[in-house]
Each structure stands twice: as C-alpha cells, then as structure tokens.
Amino acid sequence: PKNDNIQVYIKDRLFHRNEAKISVFDSAVQGGDAVWEGLRVYPEGIVCLDKHLTRLHESAKTLAFVDIPSKTEIKKAIKQTLDANGMNDDTHIRLTLTRGEKITSGMDPRLNQSGSCLIVLAEWKPLVYDNKSGIKVISSSQRRNAPQFLDSKIHHNNLLNNIIAKIQANVAGKDAGLMLDERGFVAELNGSNVFMVKNNTVYTPFAHACLPGITRNTVIDLCKNNGVKIKEADLSLSEFINAEGAFATGTMGELTPMVEIDGRDVNRDCVLMDKVLMLFKDNIKGLCESVN
Ligand code: PMP
Questions:
Q1: Residue 130: how many CB atoms within 10 A of its CB?
Q2: Most-buried pick from 89, 165, 208, 242 (CB within 10 A)?
C-alpha cells in the first residue's frame, strides 16, 4: 500500500503511478530497445550512483541512442522523484532509458522521432533476499548470452533469457536460476553475480558472459584492499557445488550466501565468506552518493 500513490518521472515530469505510461510506439515496446539500472537508496545517498550512471551512459552510447540526458540531468530527475515521494531509505529505483518514441511501428532506430526517454521509477522495497537464510538455486538450461551474440557489458532490456532462467527456478520452487555460459562454465544468476571460496581464495567468473556488476566490482575492490586473495576464473558447476562457501552479489540483494545448488547443500560455514560479507556491510554506507 505504501507504493499506491507514488509519482513516477517520465521524460521530463512526474506522473501519478496510474498515469505513468509510455507510448505503444516507444522503442522499449517495439523491440526491447532500452537500457536500465537498478539503484539502492539509503539515508546516506545512493549506492555507487556515479558508476551506475556511467554504465547507463556507456550502454546507451554502445546502442547509438541520441539525446541522452547528462548525469546532472538524471540526478535532478532522481532528486525530484525521491523528494516528491518523500523517499530517503529502503528504496529501489528502476532507472530506464529507452531509445524513445517512434513515428511508426518497427525496429529501425531511424524511426525514432524525439530522442531518448528517461524513466525514474522509485518504490519502497526491502532487499530482495534474506541475507541470513541465503538462497537456493538451480542450474538453468538457458545459457547466458555469449559476447559474440550480445555483449554482456551492455545493461540492456533484452532480459528474456534471464526471465526464462527465473521461470525455471520458480517451477522448481527455488530462488534463482544459475546460468552457464556457452562453454558450460558458470556465468551468473538470472539477476546477480556469483562468487565462491576455495583454498583461502575468493573466485568469481570472468565478466565475459555475465554483467560486470557494480556490486561484483565493489567486492573485488574490498578484497584487494583488505588482503583477501581474489581471482577471476573459469569455474564449473562442480566447483560451486563443492565450494567452501558461495554467494551472490547485486544491488537489489547485496551479498547473499547460496546455500543450495541443484538440491545439494553448499557449505555455509566459511570464515572467509563471512569476512567478505562483513566487509561489505561495514563499507556500503561509505559508497553512498548524494543527489543534492
Ligand atoms: N547480473 C544481472 C543479469 C543483473 O541484472 C544484475 C542487476 N542489474 C546484476 C548481475 C548485478 O549488478 P549490480 O551489482 O550492478 O546491481
């Protein structure tokens, strides 16, 4: 009920959620032709805001969007939205930039008439996972996009393979789908990155076939700066199942142990994993940036 009366920012102004609509001619409807970011709001500010805006800009530039709003303009839109809704904590922002409205149906970017369309959808939301009990996952038959098909560095709205993986997890009664890359190595979960611990070292898959998550990056930096051995590697399902500890990372769930993979319990009693989880907890508020 808290979100029943929220205001949503579209293009250049706020709308009540019931009136927050984009055109059927918008590129997002016509071809999933949009990029996005998920942001987390705390009283101290927005976690890694500048990095999220950089990734949004890089994704939009790669896809040759035109009339892309500047970081300053996006921050202004975010501030306006948060202020209108009285939000400063426990809030998730879904930031979307579509290529914009077209003059007729079709996928050709030249049909776009009015430049890109910014959407700031802010809602009160707790973290998506209970970090204490951890999550149970299944390995999905749906492969994560390989870079030769769609560059995983682009944070785009073509989410269908992730959605198929999530459907498989739902059908199995688990929390998330663990996606492999086209070679069969672990890539990521359907909406978060993955790490594991073995021989006193923290490992994460190379970012070839996963989103180079901002939380993933934060964890890598925290390990490097605190004397924790961290490596990127090709990692198999068996290595994750038999890890000393495994966890997922993402803005919406932060750090969450993976306690089960394909019905096998994954070890949870891992001092090094607990240390990384604690490092993240201790440092996250320092990563918040104000929009003022
Ligand atoms: N992988 C996928 C497929 C995602 O959608 C997300 C969240 N946008 C992540 C990983 C985590 O990225 P981040 O840490 O930047 O939120």
A1: 12
A2: 165
